[in-house]
UniProtKB/TrEMBL annotation:
Residues 1-22 are annotated as: Disordered. One of its GO terms (molecular function) is ATP binding. Keywords: ATP-binding, Nucleotide-binding, Transport. It comes from Geochorda subterranea. Residues 26-251 form the ABC transporter domain. This is ABC transporter ATP-binding protein. SUPFAM superfamilies: P-loop containing nucleoside triphosphate hydrolases. InterPro entries: AAA+_ATPase (IPR003593), ABC_transporter-like_ATP-bd (IPR003439), ABC_Transporter_VariousFunc (IPR051782), P-loop_NTPase (IPR027417).
Amino acid sequence: MAQRSRLSETGPSASEPPATGGAWLVETRQVVKRYGRLEAVRGVSMRLVPGQIVGLLGPNGSGKSTLLKLIAGLLRPDAGEVRVMGRQPGVQTKAWVAFQPEIDHLYAWMPVRRVMDLAAAVVPDWDEGRARELLRLLHLEEHRQTPVKALSRGMRVRLKLAVTMARTAPVVLLDEPLSGIDPPSRSRIIRALIEQFRTGEQVVVLATHEVAETEGIFDRVIFLDHGQIRLDDDAQALRERFGRSIQAIMEEVYA
Ligand SMILES: Nc1ncnc2c1ncn2[C@@H]1O[C@H](COP(=O)(O)OP(=O)(O)OP(=O)(O)O)[C@@H](O)[C@H]1O
């Protein structure tokens, strides 16, 4: 597939739906983000295409959350460029990006059912069929009347995941989506991720430093280290080249 840079283009007009076929959904070019004197992201360039689950991997503090927030438009770069569907992140691109932050962002008092109903009412790209399926797959159905504050940490994480994954936004950003979830449940959640996202139209970026359970679903992995890309490649190609798992490669890279 011939790919071309959209950075220099004006991008689709505000009324046009985003074009998901062909070119990349997200492009960053030499992006830098500083917090005071600390450079959290240092010259990151990457392009994300539809139909992939991308593992954004790296140890604590390597810049994963910062990079996701730059794409989500929650932070502005100090240098370089970020483009979502050819546009600078802002009000418009928020409709094209489903971002699940690491922090709890749901109303504590609200029952699960109301959380989903509210999201369905306010999120333009909500897919009700997908939402119902997610509630079932994530074992949230029996908690429909439970307020968020009464859910266990793992159940809250599942609910956040359901709210994010029920969207059909072309760009899905998940920041540590499995933290707090018990290991046996993780594989079910991973399966849900695969089932929901193999549409070929979305890109999913999953930031994590726990790769043992997740690496099987990655099409591509990007290793971040001190705010820079250390490795960016097709996951299977990497396994074949190094003759070991992504987890083992990662241990070596960060040793
Ligand atoms: N709001 C902030 N103010 C100051 N420094 C920050 C802020 N947010 C992040 N940092 C610093 O920026 C660096 C990158 O942080 P970031 O959260 O992006 O990394 P991460 O890879 O997501 O880490 P983790 O795996 O622990 O979530 C770290 O050194 C962190 O302490």
